[in-house]
Amino acid sequence: MAGAPQSPYDLIDLTGSVVAVTGVGGVIGSGIARRFAAVGASLVLHYRSSERAVGRLAEALPVATVQVQADLSKTGGADRVVDVALSAFDRLDVVVNNAGIQPLGDLDSMSHDEWRAVIDVNVTGTHLVTQAAAKSMISAGSGGSIIHIASIEGLQPTAHHGHYSTSKAAVIMHARAAALEFGPKGIRVNSVSPGLIDRPGLGLEWPEGVERWLAAAPLRRLGTPEDVGDACVFLASPLARWITGHNLVVDGGVSTRSTW
Question: Which of 36, 47, 89, 164 is catalytic?
Answer without folding.
Answer: 164
